[in-house]
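WARN  no MSA supplied for this record, continuing single-sequence
INFO  ligand: citrulline
INFO  echoing inputs
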Amino acid sequence: MADPFQFTHALCRTPAASAVTGIRAGGGPDPDFAGLLAEHEAYVATLRGLGLRVDVLPALDDFPDALFTEDVALTFPEGAILLRPGAPTRAGEVAHVRGPLAERHPRLLAMTGPGFADGGDVLRLADRVIIGLSDRTDPTGADELARLLGDLGYRAEIATTPKSVLHFKTGCSLIDAETILTVPAMRDCPEFAGLEVVVTPRGEEGAANILRIRETVLIGHRWQATQDLLSARGVDIRPMATDEIAHIDAGLSCMSLRW
Ligand code: CIR
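INFO  complex generated
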């Protein structure tokens, strides 16, 4: 299996004005739209600066969460898979990525249901893919997705996500091919066997959704202890503003599909 960080392409979507009404589990205030737009623009610019070709799809006002393209599909050099997002208000987003993904991928597979799976629950490792069960990804959906991943040549394992964590990748992300950053609640995940497990410092659980692009790790700018920890390990980090998207339960991986 290829290096999981050597991306050449990404697909993003401009936030719609309705994004301020995006889903949030714990209630809380709306994000500031200008600030959210600025975070998104900086994100796209950073991916481009790291050498990726980034295509940005138009805003979809009917779908407040559509800027989180990660959740509606999986993308690999071998092909893409259309998912069935578990939040009812997000189901209609999938139709809007079908065409763009078909144009950019040699194969386009699609979940048919009845189960559900969100891309935020799918973590690609160097030798396999972990699908985390969550409020958005159910066992039937995970089983169907595992079969489709197999068609693309990827071995999938199914894991669980703690109740307090929205998506599997909200709580863990790869630092490098052998090392995973995780919140304390997921440190004993059996599927991490064989990886070095690094736990987020106290009070910095929100830092766990980092995003490695080639040799660089994007991390939320307010997570100083986690930044220090990664820098001390020799990781090239790129702090990014995520304060506004955090109001609607999002982090750095959510805003792109990458391959
Ligand atoms: C949602 O609840 O679906 C959005 N407000 C946030 C999606 C975040 N996506 C991700 O973690 N992959």
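The longest strand covers residues 9-13.
INFO  checksum written, moving to next record
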